[in-house]
Specification:
The chain is built from 15 helices and 21 strands. By secondary structure, the chain is α/β, with parallel strands linked by helices. It binds flavin-adenine dinucleotide. Flavin-adenine dinucleotide binds at residues 8-14, 31-34, 39-41, 54-57, 59, 239-240, 271-273, 276, 301, 303, 399, 402-403, 431-432, 437-440, 442.
Length: 467
Amino acid sequence: MMNPVAVIGAGITGLVAAFRLQQKKIPVVLYEASGRAGGVIQSVRDQGYLAEFGPNTLLDTSPKLREIIKGAGLEPRMMYSDEGAGNRYLVRHRKTIAMPATPVGFFRSELFSWRAKLMLFREPFVRRWDNRYEESVAQFVIRRLGREFLDYAIDALVAGIYAGDPFRLSVIHGFPRLHALEQRYGSMIKGQILGARERKRRAEVSKQDAKKISFDEGLQVLPDTLLKNLGAAARINTPVTRLRKLADGWEVEFQSAGAPQQARHSGVLLAVPAHQIARLQIEGSTLAPLATLGRIHYPPVASVVLGFRREDVHHPLDGFGMLIPKVEQFNILGALFSSSLFPNRAPAGHVTITSYVGGMRNPALTAKPPDELYELTARDLGLLLGITGRPTFRHCVIYDQAIPQYEVGYGQFKQVMDDLEQAAPGLFFAGHYRHGISLGDSMVSAYDVADRIEQNLRRGPERPAAA
Ligand SMILES: Cc1cc2nc3c(=O)[nH]c(=O)nc-3n(C[C@H](O)[C@H](O)[C@H](O)COP(=O)(O)OP(=O)(O)OC[C@H]3O[C@@H](n4cnc5c(N)ncnc54)[C@H](O)[C@@H]3O)c2cc1C
């Protein structure tokens, strides 16, 4: 009988991949170092609040996501975010301004100067970038839209998605869709309009238009249910420490009840963060390039969840949340109006707001003790949202290495993964460090890698098509 496939890491990537392999009747063992499933996903119910420390929502961008949710039997527990939470706020002049939803609204908005607004007319005529040189997000935006768009919109967006720095993030790796729009249509604006038709044909939805999904008890429901479905195939409290390529498969060494043990596998999927891949002990020169992945930078981020009495918050909170550009000089990177998205995140008459601190902008802040983090977050929220009372709930989680930065030069890491999948058949890479950092991207990456593993086991490794 075929040795099982080893899936290492029970974050959403490892869970989805293992679940799909099991659906395909391929034997699998899922190894998880910690005592729980979900990785950075962490939903905690406490004092009537539901605090979500990692991702807050899953964007419904691909039919594959719904297939996974349905396969796990979770459709009855799935929720879409409240329709009333449609606004996105951006901070300018130290106050929140709703981002306009229509072109007319954009030209009327006080978010941008007239000079910046007129740059939009110029954008379709800006020449395509010469692809021989990799651009940062900041260079791309300044070239096509001007400095004001970078400082007041894109910088805030990059902080909201990556907790990142637009001068370091690569446009081709960090925002591949933007890069593709320019290359394909010569303009982001033209591409936005024409690209929408193609996505419709492929039944895909852009992140900007996608509905936001969660579950009745938060996102944690998804990993918990997948873990349960996997049954004895999932082994928690079982960190993998060493990998060895054998002539006919793989040997995985892991710690079980404090003692090292080995098992043989037909293949290995690395669904752990890149910095953990680099820490695995390996044998043989073929796998030596794995150490390179340790250079992928993950800055720290603190998630600070605060509850308030509704009457103490003067802002309508009629939106998804607010993005804050660096030039506005606040401590927090941005905040989500969590109980506006999903009302059951707070007890009656209260609201929950989730703020992020640190990232590339200010990593040192995450070293502060929790009391200081609560104070500086409450101060920023007080100023921006007109909050008069003290928090009624407070909780924070610090992710020391939170989100991988797809910086200029990230292609070298992708190349290492591509090369190793060829040089060491049966070894696979998937998840947030390879195919996009979002939850949805990680799940699609896991869905697809299960197909590749199946193909590898049943028909032999993929070969590049003959020229
Ligand atoms: C603060 C924060 C907010 C976010 N917000 C959003 C959001 O709103 N929307 C969105 O789409 N995405 C968001 N993301 C991104 C998204 O949550 C992640 O990209 C995704 O969950 C990553 O899943 P993963 O399984 O690839 O990795 P992880 O969740 O990191 O899981 C990796 C797992 O591997 C385990 N592991 C590590 N080493 C070993 C070992 N040696 N042996 C065995 N197991 C090991 C770990 O314990 C962990 O369980 C956010 C991320 C963070 C940190």
